[in-house]
Design brief:
single chain, 381 residues, four-stranded antiparallel β-sheet, 50% helix
């Protein structure tokens, strides 16, 4: 499972024995894989400041989770046809996310533990805010480019009624620079090809005989040329419509056709140039954001453990990785049973099998006898 439970219990003899019992039960029952989770000794400050930090960290946790989810989605969107390789690019410090979480070590260089806790939290908040700002600007520029390119490509993929014709027709298909003659493009349904050949010269006066030519066709019909005098264009269009032939509004303009082709070439080139740098930026900053997120989880465990268990600071944090989704309910029951002495009332209400507690899930809002937070990597799948 790509889900972890980060819990803590007081570090006195009774609770260390409780942790041993938990390890024994979960191991024998194959419920989870458990490892110690190292958290530095931070400067505690006042309990009032910890209460404020608890609320701030909760919001920062939610923000960080949302940010890395958006960054993962951006990697998916940028990689397009190579989506199967997305997970190879969602790493933290060069290793897969599960390995990073299970081997977590506090980064003293980035987030010095000797600094006051509010300063550490502020550093994390500013780092994530800057990443989000850059993410918005970089992806907005790339997405605008991608959208413009997709719109041009859509024009070349539609049917004969809607698609651009600049990549289909050529100068040789038209009578150009004539004061009197003009070449029109007509869409003829496939079943009506024979009828078109028999009747197009008589649809109006002044149609040039034998001037029609099939340029291209799709599943529904074909695109034909026909040359006639300019003065009968309206009459020809009316008669053509009555016979289920559609005159496509198009006049050959080499300048416009050249502009369209150059625009497509430019957009393709710009997208290719931006692809590599953007993907590299996403990889690097996804790693940074994810690392920051796990540090925030560690800070939350520290702050909540001090608030829950009191001073002096003495608790043990443990990382649990449930083996199966189906075993999470049983794992909760084991934990609540082992640590029920920390809060008899809360444990009793959760353990009462006759009570169906709506929405009981392991989340940041649930109350347990022990401190508990979830690190859910499935949101990045």
């Amino acid at each position: 499972m790509s889900e972890f439970w980060l819990i803590s219990a007081p570090g006195d003899k009774e609770n260390l024995q409780a942790l041993e019992r938990m390890n024994t039960v979960t191991s024998k029952s194959n419920l989870s894989y458990n490892t110690k989770f190292a958290i530095p000794d931070f400067k505690v400050g006042t309990l009032d400041s910890l209460v404020g930090l608890s609320d701030e960290l909760g919001k920062l946790d939610t923000f960080a989770e949302s940010l890395i989810k958006r960054m993962a989605q951006s990697v998916v969107e940028v990689m397009e046809d190579a989506k199967g390789k997305v997970q190879e690019n969602l790493l933290a410090n060069g290793v897969d996310l599960t390995s990073f979480v299970t081997h977590f070590e506090w980064d003293m260089a980035k987030y010095p533990a000797k600094q006051p806790l509010p300063s550490v939290v502020d550093t994390l908040a500013k780092q994530l805010a800057q990443i989000e700002t850059d993410l918005k600007s970089r992806t907005a520029a790339y997405n605008t480019l991608k959208t413009n390119l997709e719109n041009l490509e859509k024009k070349s993929r539609g049917n004969l009624f809607t698609r651009t014709l600049s990549d289909i027709v050529s100068r040789e298909d038209f009578v150009l620079d004539s004061e009197y003659l003009v070449t029109l493009l007509v869409i003829v349904p496939k079943p009506n090809y024979a009828q078109w050949q028999k009747t197009y010269e008589s649809l109006s006066d002044m149609v040039v005989p034998r001037s029609t030519k099939l340029i291209t066709e799709d599943k529904e019909g074909g695109l034909f040329t026909v040359t006639l005098f300019r003065k009968v264009i309206d009459d020809f269009k009316t008669k053509a419509r009555e016979n289920k032939f559609t005159v496509r509004e198009f006049y050959y303009d080499e300048t416009e056709i050249k502009r369209e082709r150059e625009e497509m070439t430019r957009l393709l080139s710009d997208k290719k140039q931006q692809y590599g740098p953007l993907l590299r930026w996403l990889k690097v900053n996804f790693s940074e954001a994810f690392i920051a997120w796990v540090h925030i989880k560690a800070l939350r465990v520290f702050v909540e453990s001090v608030l829950r268990y009191g001073l002096p600071v003495n608790f043990q944090a443990v990382l649990l990785q449930p083996h199966k989704k189906s075993s999470t309910k049983r794992l909760r029951e084991v934990l609540n049973s082992v640590f029920r002495h920390l809060d008899e009332v809360a444990a009793a209400s959760i353990l009462d099998a006759s009570v169906d507690i709506p929405g009981l899930q392991l989340s940041n809002q649930d109350y347990f006898p022990y401190v508990c937070f979830r690190i859910d990597l499935s949101l990045l799948d």
